[in-house]
Amino acid sequence: MESKRSPWTYVVFAGVAALLALLIYGVAIKSGGNKFDNALAAGERLPAPTRQVRVLNDTGTKSIEDFRGKVILLNFWASWCEPCKAESPAIERAYAKYAKDGLIVLGADVDDLSKDANQFIIENKLTYPIIRYSSANATKDFGTKRMPETFVIDREGNVAALQRFQVDDEWLNTVLPPILAERPAGSS
Q1: Could you give the number of structural domains in the chain?
Q2: Which of 64, 83, 71, 62 lies closest to 148, judged by CA?
Q3: Are the CB atoms for 172 and 90 separated by under 8 Å?
Q4: CATH code, domain with 161
Q5: 85-101, pLDDT tens digit by residue?
């Protein structure tokens, strides 16, 4: 005689499988698992991707390579992202504070309609350049999985720091000054 399983057996099994998947995902996210996270954890810097991407409200394109010699704070955001809204004043303050030292901030709007991106810029009073990134290219290039994510690229074009979650004044004022103080190899 074949035993019948209760429908609850399948619900419990699916719940346990989902919890296990979330646990594995959480451990992978916390431990990095991305080439940039892993390199920085080992005290190394990898070259930042130099993909040409569209500039918001312009027909032109820009690449990280266009800013060689500057320190770049590349901030991936989306208009619907609440932590992105919360961090934007700190990023704007860092831009105002460190621009004279060679900092350029590039906002990387991900998969927004131009109308939504422009509304975000107005509401958050952003004054730095905004480029457009597809989520597929952001993931392929930088391993981004969610918004916001911020990368600091040194004067030689290498990823020198990153934050996979919201940045604040403390993080920016700790991370940026030493990278801004570095001089490219071969300069006096």
Answers
A1: 1
A2: 83
A3: yes
A4: 3.40.30.10
A5: 999 999 999 999 999 99
